Amino acid sequence: MMDRISLVLVIIGALNWLLVGLFQFDAVAWLFGGQTATVSRIIYAIVGLAGLWSVSLLFREREIVTEE
Hints:
By secondary structure, the chain is an all-alpha fold. It is 72% helix and 0% strand.
């Protein structure tokens, strides 16, 4: 469950960076009152932590699922 939540947050963060890169529009800052607003900073931190969690997905062994 934590893996899926982290991936969703990473995707949201990636889409936000896409908007910043293409249009110079920061959706998180726009929604929550600017880049220095406390809520925006919390969102940035949560997305960053989700990114760190997602790094662990690269180094995990895959589970083999067999159908019976």
